[in-house]
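Homework help board

Subject: predicted structure for assignment chain

Our instructor gave us this sequence and asked us to write out the predicted structure in token form, then describe one feature. I got the tokens but I'm not sure how to describe them. Can anyone check?
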Amino acid sequence: MLPLILIILLAVILSRKAYAATVDSGTYGKNITWTLDSNGTMTTSGTGERGDLGEEERDHWWNIKNSIKTVVIKEGITSIDVSAFSNCTNLSSITIPKNVTSIDIQAFEQCSSLGGFWVDEANPQYSSDQYGVLFSKDKTKLLKAPQTLTGSYTVPDGVTTLGALTDSDSSNPAFNDCTKLTSVTLPDSVNVIDIAAFAGCSSLTKVNIPNGVKKIDYITFMNCTSLTSITIPDSVTDISNYVFSGCNNLTQITLGKGIQTIYANAFWGCDKLWHVLYTGTENEWNNINSDPQGYGDYEGNESLLSATRHYNCTGNEILDLTNKKCSICLANCNHNWDSGKVTKVFKKCYSLTPKECRKGRNRS
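My token output:
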């Protein structure tokens, strides 16, 4: 048996662990209060919507936000408003009760440690999956992924929209700043990819865009620094401003012939963009509106002009490099997957620089 003094000591330690004292408290407007305990759990209670914070309340909140690790929202709360938990960098978990029917798009901005959104199954507006990704109740809209989402993620069939918390709100960045996310598989049902959907996903190397998406919205892939290639299907008509800005390792892009407009700075900073594969003809390329805002032809998209453009492509040329109508010489030709066919098309491929590679296209 354990000595009596040791048993007493263990009991004291366990009781201290179980008990978490309140260390701070405050209000959100008139009807909602919050308490923060010594374990970092913030409990929010009251009724109705969280009111606007006064200046003193904002200052108080800013001073304690990094102490918040877990959030408990009582069932009287009906909304999580703008910037409610933004910049709470140590917040790891939040449970959304059944009565919350409104969540603002910036409520969890820069919550870099958030491991997931966990929604009460009785909530009529929202739902979540086993990874803590937040959806609309019917799972047709993927609203927000936690920034800690890691590795590969497959969006469920039936999802039509990435982002947009409500029909009137069209600026929710679904996977924004998921820096550990390496690949995303989108189902064919997706037809809307909202603003900044993948912005800041610095480890993202692979994502497919379904043939049904019509627009690549503002800053969708901004600063996806690990992205080296991507295919834009024929269904897309517009590529908005700064879509691929900061993608400094993007070397190859396939553009569908449905594109009508490329906005300024869509490819700003894509200095390694060596090959543009276009599924249309050269005449169709020349009809693309490259200056819709009057900034100057190809403003910020000079990399599209300096890259080698290949016309009449199918979108599969990375696997069929002997197609002389759309041949590509890769900078690294240490390959065995095509039995050396690339070097048969480019006799000195192994020694070519990317610049020399461009000059060598279609050489037999």
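Reply (TA_rk): Your tokens look well-formed. For the description, you could write something like this. Residues 316-364 form one domain. That's the kind of observation they're looking for.
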